[in-house]
Amino acid sequence: xxxxxxxxxxxxxxxxxxxxxxxxxxxxxxxxxxxxxxxxxxxxxxxxxxxxxxxxxxxxxxxxxxxxxxxxxxxxxxxxxxxxxxxxxxxxxxxxxxxxxxxxxxxxxxxxxxxxxxxxx
Length: 121
Hints:
single chain; flat
């Protein structure tokens, strides 16, 4: 990455991003991207794990991972509405949770692979 054209402005943006996400380092939970100038306000969103209308639980994800999560939710037949029938509601929650855990599991395998690549000789 090249040096910023305006280092003062870049430092201010980085500080604003860290304050906004209430973290020392905003990180996508699925891909692990941590660069605050790449994972910034417009590129990291709070993903509603079970659907915004069902529950307020959120997780920070980059836009690419957010798109993948929503595609997987559609493939799992998880509607983006809150069902009134408790059985349908529970089914949607379990399917959404399965999608979330599947994405986390894939991320864990990738992170473990990276650690294997960095083994000491």
